[in-house]
Amino acid sequence: MVQINLPKNSEVTKGKYYQDKTGSKNLRKINVYRWDPSTEENPRLDTYEVDMDNCPSKVLDILNKIKNEIDPTLAYRRSCAHGVCGSCAMNIGRQKWSCMHLHPMQKLMVI
Amino acid sequence: LEEQAAKRAAELVKPGTPHEEISENETQKCIDRFDKIRNADGDTGTAELRLAMQKTMQSKCAVFRTEKTLKEGVEEIRKTYDGLDSISVKDKSLVFNTDLVETLEFDNLIRQAVVTVDSAHNRKESRGAHAREDYPKRDDVKFMQHTLAWCDGKNTKISYREVHKSTLTNEVQYFPPQERVY
Description:
The complex is a heterodimer. By secondary structure, chain A is mainly beta. Chain A is 11% helix and 30% strand. Chain A contains one helix and six strands; from the N terminus they run βββαβββ. In chain A, a hairpin with a 1-residue loop joins strand 4 (89-92) and strand 5. Chain A starts with 12 loop residues before the first strand and ends with a strand. Chain B has helices at 2-12, 24-38, 46-60, 67-82, 98-122, 140-143; strands at 44-45, 64-65, 87-88, 131-132, 145-152, 155-162. In chain B, helix 3 packs antiparallel against helix 4 (67-82), helix 3 runs parallel beside helix 5 and helix 4 packs antiparallel against helix 5 (98-122). The longest helix of chain B has 25 residues, at 98-122. Chain B is flat. The mean pLDDT of chain B is 93. Classes of the chains: A mainly beta, B alpha/beta. The interface between A and B is medium-sized, with 12 and 16 residues.
């Protein structure tokens, strides 16, 4: 079988780990694929610990929570947030609209 | 009428005339504002201040207003305004920087909010979408006028301008506004 490798500058590196600061018992680890085009760095996979007791369960809600409370540098497109416009389409296991999709029950997920 | 306007414009403007130079001060003002916000490194996140502003506007300057809520709103929104001094922008990049954009938006919105609450507090009547439970009637004597507001930081100046009470032609008569009754 043909082995396809990503180009060197597209290989995903391990990103930062954002530890929970709320002391919540109900944590979920969210992995987010991120890339900053203004630096020469490779794309990376950041991990956030999110307090799910105080977070609605759509994927977009989780992202909003991360952006508002944990890491404001996170950037993603969204507009209507209720399954009409399709701005928030992203890869959540497979391609989905993050405003329509409940987070999967697995401990880890890749966004 | 349009034809006359076009003819007049053709008389006044010579082809190929460049735009008037914008004074250096004006562009500098915009750049200073941008730089100040881009390099803001306080300890309050934009999202936190924005939420405070949203909560104040929703609870103190909502659909139905009273003297009490508006007075509280006037003071409360200024506390949020003071948060501008300690605002922080964590993302320093210049590509798809939503943190910066949201902070610029907040800077615009908080000034709008201050002016909105002050204008509503000063208008002691109910008119259109401005519904005051303590003044349920419209007051054409005092308030049939436009609110003008000047915003200088958190200090505002409220003034009023007369509404037009005539039409532009003699072909139609002027209809004085009436109370809406259903």
